[in-house]
Amino acid sequence: MNILIKLIQVAFLYGFYVIGSWLHDILHIPLPGSIIGLLLVWGALSTKLINLKWIESGAHSLLSVLPIFFIPATVAIMNYGHFFSGKGSLLIPITIVSTFLTMGVASFVSQSVAKRMDKRKAGSECN
Predict the structure, then answer these.
(1) What spatial distance separates the first Cα and last Cα of the chain, rounded to whole Å?
(2) pLDDT for the residue numbered 57
C-alpha cells in the first residue's frame, strides 16, 4: 500500500512537470518546463492549494535517487578534456569556492526562515 501511495504522489508531481512543459510550449516562456512545474508546485504549496502530505513521501523517493541523474553529466565532462588541459584547471578552485558559497548562503537562508517560522508559531501559540 505504501508503494502505491508513493507512485500516486510521484504521478502527481509528474503532472506538474507536464503542465510546466505544456505552459513552456504554449506561452514560449524562457524557462524549461521542469522549472516551470517546480515553480507551480512551490506556488501551490505556498498558497495551500495542495497539502505537503499529499506529495511528501513521493518527493522523498525522487530525492533519494537524485544523485544518479548527475552521473551522465559527470561522465560527459570526459569529452572536454582539451578544455581542462589549459586554463580549465582554474575551474577546480572556482567550483570549490562557489560550492561552499552556495552551501553557506543556503544554510543562512534556511536558518533565517526556520527562525522566522518559530517566531510565528510562538506568537500564534500565545494568542
Answers:
(1) 40
(2) 92
